[in-house]
Amino acid sequence: MPNVRAPGQKPILIPLTNGFLDAIDLAYRNAGFDDRAKFIREAVREKLVSLGIDVPVEITLAPGRRRPANKCEAPDRVKKKYPRHNPNTAGLNEGERGEA
After folding, report:
1. How much is the pTM?
2. pLDDT tens digit string along 55-69?
């Protein structure tokens, strides 16, 4: 669910130049990560560990975004099907060429 955060999850805003962001995008793809956020979380963890700060991998994982199974909601990303459009052959106060 885009823009929906689980309890305990806090987004942060970090201004980056386009060039730095391009380098991050290239790096996470080349490293086999699924998305930029996972790559950045792991990079921050690695930096903290290199500074002698113990950071368990479990706390770097993003909290789940799924709602409890007992909630009755339509699944995400399900396209709604609308009835097929059947144009009305009757005019709307218009002449043959669309003239009023």
Report:
1. 0.57
2. 998 888 877 654 444
